Amino acid sequence: MTTIRIAAALLLRPDGQTLLVRKRGARAFMQPGGKIGPGETPDGALARELKEEIDLDVEPASFEVLGEFSAEASNEPGHRVHADVFLVRTEQAHFHPAAEIEEVKWVSPFDAAGVALAPLTADHIFPHYRELIGRSTRRR
């Protein structure tokens, strides 16, 4: 099975909602981001992808590392994705899809019932984020 290296954002607004994107012709929603090009760093690739996909200008220095995760690729049968995932905070509430993105949607990482999610999002990113939030609230 071929592995595709990507960078992805858990893009959060102040109310805790996260922005998901759906690529043209796809069914599942996923984090914004994409393939890491030759010579690119994961955070540099993510900054480029956020600009291309949703017209968000953000400095990689503001990204918080969430971790690295692997899962079956949602849109490419027979492939896996290996993702460097970053937490990216935004005050911006409205984004318009561009490039290959057909739809954007704000959802709660704690309750995305009824939303078709890519395996990386459903099985790794959201559970990891929920665990992090749970740990931080238990410390208070």
Mean pLDDT, to the nearest integer, reads 93
The biggest sheet, with number of strands, parallel, antiparallel or mixed sense and barrel status, is: 4 strands, mixed
Based on secondary structure, the structural category is alpha+beta
Helix content: 10-25%
| Tally of DSSP helical segments | 2
Order of the strands making up the biggest sheet: 3-1-5-4
Q: What is the CA-CA span between the terminal residues?
A: 44 Å
Shape: globular
What proportion of the residues form beta strands (DSSP E)? 25-35%
Can you walk me through this structure?
Helices cover 24% and strands 34% of the residues. By secondary structure, the chain is of the alpha+beta class. The model has no long low-confidence stretch (mean pLDDT 93). A hairpin with a 6-residue loop joins strand 4 and strand 5.
List the helices and strands and how they pair.
Elements: E1 2-12, E2 18-23, E3 33-35, H1 42-54, E4 64-72, E5 79-89, E6 101-107, H2 119-139
Parallel strand pairs: 1-5
Antiparallel strand pairs: 1-3, 2-6, 4-5
